[in-house]
Design goal:
Helices cover 45% and strands 21% of the residues. By secondary structure, it is α+β, with helices and mostly antiparallel strands. It has 2 domains: 5-94, GMP Synthetase, Chain A, domain 3; 98-162, Ribosomal Protein S8, Chain: A, domain 1 (2-Layer Sandwich), CATH 3.30.1370.50. The chain has a 3-stranded mixed beta sheet with strand order 1-2-3. Strands 4-6-5 form a 3-stranded antiparallel beta sheet. A hairpin with a 6-residue loop joins strand 5 and strand 6. The radius of gyration is 18 Å and the shape is elongated. The chain starts with 12 loop residues before the first helix and ends with a strand. The relative contact order is 0.12.
């Protein structure tokens, strides 16, 4: 995906309406009964698509958020085709993003605490780039530990170690 600002579209009411329609159409094609609420997130220069479907939440989120990310990608690509430029789209289903962030902050706290107590680096595996970023940002405020990502591709992992 190209994050070039020159290739991005300014977020306005037309863009939000287009993303709302695209999201509703995708869910209809999937045979899912859901409500869709689309808003601008000025802080992240993005459009947030909040989907609520009490009966299908787990299916829409998928294992480790894989279906949620796939829906997000499809909405982003269709939007690009319709509008001729990129718009950062963030899909949230059943407050999954908030719950995921809380879980990652808890994981970060545990790793930081163990690193401080033992003096040994703590390694966190099986995190995607977004998850590693959340932990890096969260622990950047902790004066007792530092974080670093190592490895390549799918083997990338995060290390939390006490500051020397």
């Amino acid at each position: 995906m190209n994050d070039n600002k020159a290739d991005s579209v300014k977020i306005d009411k037309k863009v939000i309406k287009s993303i709302q329609e695209t999201s509703e159409e995708i869910l209809k094609l999937l045979g899912v009964n859901a409500s869709v609420d689309v808003n601008e997130d000025k802080l992240n220069d993005a459009v947030v698509v909040n989907i609520e479907s009490p009966d299908e939440t787990g299916l829409l989120i998928g294992a480790k958020g894989e279906n949620l990310l796939a829906i997000q990608s499809v909405i982003g690509m269709i939007t690009r085709q319709k509008l001729g430029g990129w718009v950062r789209v963030m899909v949230n289903i059943g407050n999954w993003r908030e719950k995921q962030e809380e879980y990652l902050k808890s994981l970060a706290e545990q790793a930081a605490s163990r690193a401080k107590e033992t003096g040994d680096a703590q390694t966190l595996y099986n995190l995607n780039a977004t998850q590693r970023r959340i932990i890096h940002l969260y622990l950047s405020e902790n004066k007792d530990v530092e974080t670093e990502s190592m490895g390549e591709g799918g083997d990338r992992f995060l290390i939390v170690r006490p500051k020397s």
